[in-house]
Fold this protein.
Amino acid sequence: MSEDVVGGKVGKGLQSLSTFGAGTSRLEVLAIIATAVIVIGGLELVLRWFEVPHYILPPPSAIVAALWTDFPLILPHLGYTLVVLLSGFAIGAGIGLILAAVITQFPFAEKIIAPYILILVTTPMLALVPLLILWFGFGYEPRIIAVALATGPMVMINSATGFRRVDANKIALARSYGASTLQIFWKVRAPMALPMILVGLMIGAIFGLLTAVGAEMVGGGFGLGNRLTTYSSMIRMPQFFGVVLILSLLGILIYVIFFLIGKKWTSWET
Amino acid sequence: MTQGDAGGTKLAVKAATKRYGDFHALKDCSLDIGANSVVSIVGPSGCGKTTLLWAMSGLNPLTSGEVLLDGTPIDRPRPEVGLVFQEANLLPWRNLMDNILFPFEIKRQQPDRAWIDHLLDRVSLKGFEKSFPNELSGGMQQRGSIVRALSLQPSVLLMDEPFGALDAFTREEMNQLVEEIWLETKTTIVFITHSIEEALFLSDQVVVLTPRPGRVLNVYDVPFERPRTMEIMASKEVFDLTNQIKADIYGQQIAGRAAAE
Ligand SMILES: Nc1ncnc2c1ncn2[C@@H]1O[C@H](COP(=O)(O)OP(=O)(O)O)[C@@H](O)[C@H]1O
Ligand SMILES: [Mg+2]
């Protein structure tokens, strides 16, 4: 019967995204560390040598020092951003996953909905934040909704690709033992979709982080995004870059979490 | 005496017809398969072998006609019928043991551990229970899928070009394994293959299908005792049978090409 043309190819998305972390030897680790030392140290030296003012570009040591002293002040904002990100992500990813699972069962409905999903994926949800603030006020709500709107379509579109990876022979196998539609879903379709679902969740989480920070920059007095606007308006560049550093670390953390989950649960792909 | 004993008809295909749109994949195809026998089906690609086998498995209903298993029509998959696919078709996210237990999970039924252990031993897969499919060779995967199909002790085993993707040596090993399994269980086996040699080594009967529309052209008896030694397989009788079957298959292809021109 029909071969599974997609199987084993699409799911490698996560692996190819993660070549960075895969199979690094001791020598490579050394090279990576040496490069980092040279880049950061070089930046420090150059900025000091030319006496570049801190308000233009602070040297790395000043950024670390500012983070060290001001971290207690930044921490509540980090907490706020995490709440926005995690709730928005949970809502968006949950809805996206359920929609993907349901929609792919009905190819006709999928065709009708596809253009709207595409619009949702391509529209930067940040554009809606001023409107959402108008509707929901300056609290958590507009930001959580923005994050959910950014995350959901990403999760949905990738998961749908996963759920569409139908291997007729695997489904026939389950059917030959009298499996119900629900059993086929949980025991064949869902595991087969898992690698793409993880890709969707990771991209969704990264987009969610971008949107959370962006949404905090628009009005309201809280969150890491708000710190960025505040510190830059106060020309406190070491603190500003300290927050940028925290945001990069958050992004890396998201990446690492999904990399590890992928390694544990989708290693059968390769 | 080591022939499949004529314990009556196990599977009866009666005027099986399968249409995909206007295209007849099978047309008035009739075939009786004796209990405890091994029957191979050969024929050019696309002549409806898989379609016929899936009809026997109850996976793909016929447009008209029927398949009777012990006299009752097959209209959905039956536990007495085991199916082995072209590729091993193991679920890659499950280790070997979990793949073998898959049917029991679906049926919410207690597995017969002793039988499964025996089968694993039989196909030399003891010790690989925790291995994932991507850690096993093609031959091992296919042996695993045979264990899975036999785990429910089916009275009929349907195999769709099970060794087509394997190299020649592995393939011969697998043929011997199927022979051994048959000698032990006497399960009725329907075996689809591209290899006439394989068909003659394994079967009591070889069925040649014609394409467009798929129907039975000839049924050959293969009356050699088992186990089939190299001497038997190199005998004049086997040679003649091989040529007859080849003539059937290639004759059709030439006729088909002539008709197309
Ligand atoms: N789902 C389907 N829809 C349309 N045509 C099909 C379908 N399945 C099989 N066919 C056609 O039916 C014919 C027989 O197919 P199949 O039984 O797979 O042949 P074989 O196994 O002998 O190679 C082929 O020509 C194939 O293209
Ligand atoms: Mg086929």
